[in-house]
Design goal:
The chain is of the alpha+beta class. Helices cover 45% and strands 14% of the residues. It has a five-stranded mixed beta sheet with strand order 1-2-5-4-3, with helices on one face.
Length: 150
């Protein structure tokens, strides 16, 4: 019963999350604390054209690499207030994780490097909260990381 009820609004929730994810990806792309953004909705993403053909929207998962080192990634995660730190992504609320410290911590460094997972990679599962609140949350956390480098 609950699953059926939830399916009735799934498309609306996914559309809202995808809109938020696109706005966040564009914001991150222009922030000086971010060295790289991976989101198929961005024109510079290597699979952008394929995603346009195969998908309805670009989803709600955004990956980025912060400038600095492991310490800056940790500062970002510690300073997020709207995003929740979590290993299991895909909820209706916005979640953040550091694969090198969490989901892939047991993977040897060399293998992580081959997968493109370094200590500055942060993965976001974007939810349906206010987009402005999400962007402001990220901006505050990213600026805290920049401040730690000065």
């Amino acid at each position: 019963f609950l699953a059926h009820r939830g399916l009735k609004t799934l498309h609306v929730r996914m559309e809202a999350a995808a809109r938020n994810a696109m706005a966040i990806a564009l914001f991150l792309e222009n922030h000086r604390a971010v060295s790289k953004v991976l989101y198929p909705g961005l024109k510079l993403h290597p699979q952008h054209e394929l995603a346009k053909k195969q998908q309805h929207g670009f989803g709600a998962m955004v990956t980025f690499y912060c400038v600095g080192k492991k310490e800056q990634a940790a500062i970002i995660l510690e300073n997020l207030k709207v995003f929740t730190l979590a290993e299991s992504l895909g909820a209706v609320e916005s979640l953040a994780e550091s694969p090198s410290l969490m989901t892939h911590a047991s993977v040897p460094d060399g293998q992580r490097a081959l997968l493109g997972i370094d200590d500055t990679l942060i993965r976001l599962s974007v939810g349906i909260e206010s987009c402005g609140d999400l962007v402001n949350d990220l901006d505050f956390a990213l600026n805290a990381a920049l401040g730690s480098m000065e």
